[in-house]
Amino acid sequence: MLLSNGEDQTQLLPSETETQVSNSDSVEGLLLVSKVYTDVAVVPEQQNNEIQHLISNLQREVEELRLKQRVVDGKRRQALSKILDIKGSIRVFCRIRPNLSKEKRRNYEPVSAESERVRVKFGGTRKEFAFDKVFHQDTTQESVFVELEPILRSAMDGHNVCVFAYGQTGTGKTFTMDGTNEQLGIIPRAIEELFCQASMDASSSFTFSMSMLEVYMGHVRDLLSPRQSCRTHEPLIKCNLNIQTDPKGLVEIEGLSEVQISESAKARWWYNKGKRFRSTSWTNVNQASSRSHCLTRINIFRRGDSSEAKSETSKLWMVDLGGSERLLKTGARGLTLDEGCAINLSLSALADVLAALKRKRCHVPYRNSKLTQLLRDSLGMILLSSLNCKYNQLLRRK
Ligand SMILES: Nc1ncnc2c1ncn2[C@@H]1O[C@H](COP(=O)(O)OP(=O)(O)OP(=O)(O)O)[C@@H](O)[C@H]1O
């Protein structure tokens, strides 16, 4: 439709708009209308050329800015890698759980806690432990998560990353990793953050997929499997997935469900579905004690925006480990006792692997447990462990 001037244009307006322009503001109204109905075809040729020129200038500027952003992104990645190298590929944090009102006895209460060390008293002696950072009793879930953000960025930059919570039963591992509806933990926050960072990154495009599994009594169970009956009453063999390592050392789990996640709400839906099938039961120490190690994996597929850019895949593992247990104290019997023993065994295998990695040993005993086999290609790069205070064997003693 071609329109030449404002006066004619008012006849073509919808009736509601006509009413608006017929009042005392009609002159302003007409100006507005003429803008709305202007067709580019009536722009004189000279102006048209100017506009085309402006557009191509802007396109050039956008291209230049993209190039600059790519350079800045490259530098940022290098800087982040350096920072993580300096800080160490394995970082250990301690989170001190507040005493719960229902608890009668105060075990291993910290005598004092500073920003990087904790002194605890037990068995008549005082012991001191050092960490990369200590989160005090009143630390919020958000503050814990903020410490992890560079690690997530590193996962998005193409590194395999593993974050896990380790500690005695009842010390708040599930609270830290999963949280509650009011106080979201690391996993739901990380899911949100990944999508947020992906939407802000103009130089790459990202897609994500998700898997969830548990290591229960030495068997690997798919928590997102459509066969939701993968529970204790099912023969375990059905839920015992095989772990394969390819010649490059990359780990793959045969038959594990992997769901595409296009938005954070969908990811949260799958996560909530998966965690419902995790094995938990009552013990003397924790009413809803995890009886397995629960692993959430997000595969990150990244593609740069230049034509020669290769696509990269990385993994972010978020692991809520089963609690190390003093079997007498938990009052475990029968199956619960067997579960506790299996958890303790695999945790000690994990401690061996971490010790070997930390000391840069040439032999790392990954094969000693399913847990360490699963995390084999993600432990070497960055491992961050969130601990909950009470004594435990991963602490570095001073
Ligand atoms: N920082 C915290 N603030 C408030 N409550 C907490 C905190 N950490 C843990 N809790 C509470 O302590 C109890 C035990 O925590 P949780 O179940 O997370 O322990 P866990 O280490 O995962 O135990 P398990 O190894 O037996 O599964 C829960 O009721 C939880 O809500």
UniProtKB/TrEMBL annotation:
Residues 89-398 form the Kinesin motor domain. The keyword Mitochondrion does not apply. One of its GO terms (cellular component) is microtubule. Keywords: ATP-binding, Coiled coil, Microtubule, Motor protein, Nucleotide-binding. It comes from the Eukaryota. Gene3D superfamilies: Kinesin motor domain. InterPro entries: Kinesin-like_fam (IPR027640), Kinesin_motor_dom (IPR001752), Kinesin_motor_dom_sf (IPR036961), P-loop_NTPase (IPR027417). PANTHER family: KINESIN-LIKE PROTEIN KIN-14U, KINESIN-LIKE PROTEIN KLP-3. Belongs to the TRAFAC class myosin-kinesin ATPase superfamily. Kinesin family. KIN-14 subfamily. This is Kinesin-like protein KIN-14U. It comes from Pisum sativum (Garden pea). The lineage of its organism: Eukaryota, Viridiplantae, Streptophyta, Embryophyta, Tracheophyta.
